[in-house]
Amino acid sequence: MDIVTAITGASGALYSQRFIQGLVQAGVNVHLVVSPLGRRLLHDELGMETVNLPMLAGTDDHTITLYNYNDVGSKLASGSFLHDGMVVVPCSSNTLAEIAHGLGDNLISRAAAVTLKERRRLIVVHREMPLSPIDINNYKALSDAGVILCPANPGFYLNPTTVLEVVDFVAGKLLDLVGVKHSLDTRWDPKVVRPPMQTM
C-alpha cells in the first residue's frame, strides 16, 4: 500500500507524526512531501533541525521516501504513479486555497491535483479556526470536487487524559479513512465505562 502524505505550515505537527507512525507500523509505503513552512512547523513543534524521518516514523526501520517540494517533475506529479490516497496533514489555508483552485506550482498542490483527476482519495486536514469566508468557499469547492475534508477536531467521548490521546483520536480517524488498520483507541463503545476527565 502506498500513501502520499504532505505536511504544510499549519500548527499540528503531532497529527502528522502520529499518522505517519501509524502508516509505518502497518507496513505502508509513505511518500512524503514537506513544504518550506511545514519544515519550520516540524522545527518549532517537534524540534527537528531537518526533516527527521526516523523521528517521524518512530523507528529507524521505516518505509518513508522524502520528495523535494519544488520538484513538480517527480513521479508524485504524474497520474501514472499508482497510490492508495493522499493526506495533507496539517493543511494550511494557503495550501487549501491552492488545491481548491487547481494550482500546481509545487509538488504538494500538483500531487493533490493529480490525485483528484485520477479520482483517488484525497483527505485534507485543515487546521485553522475560525474560518474566513474564503476558507468556507474553498471548503465548498473541494467538497464538490470529491475531497474528504477532515478538520483536526478531536472527539472527547473517550475522556482523554493526555494531549497524545487527543492527537491519536485524529490520527486514528485518518488511518480509518485511508483503510489502514491500527491499534489507536478511537472507537466509541457505550458499553465501556471510562473515568470522567479531570477539569480545572
From TrEMBL:
Keywords: Flavoprotein, FMN, Prenyltransferase, Transferase. FMN binds at residues 9-11, 35, 92-95, 127. Dimethylallyl phosphate binds at residues 157, 173. It catalyses: dimethylallyl phosphate + FMNH2 = prenylated FMNH2 + phosphate. Residues 1-177 form the Flavoprotein domain. Flavin prenyltransferase that catalyzes the synthesis of the prenylated FMN cofactor (prenyl-FMN) for 4-hydroxy-3-polyprenylbenzoic acid decarboxylase UbiD. The prenyltransferase is metal-independent and links a dimethylallyl moiety from dimethylallyl monophosphate (DMAP) to the flavin N5 and C6 atoms of FMN. This is Flavin prenyltransferase UbiX. It comes from Humisphaera borealis. The gene is ubiX.
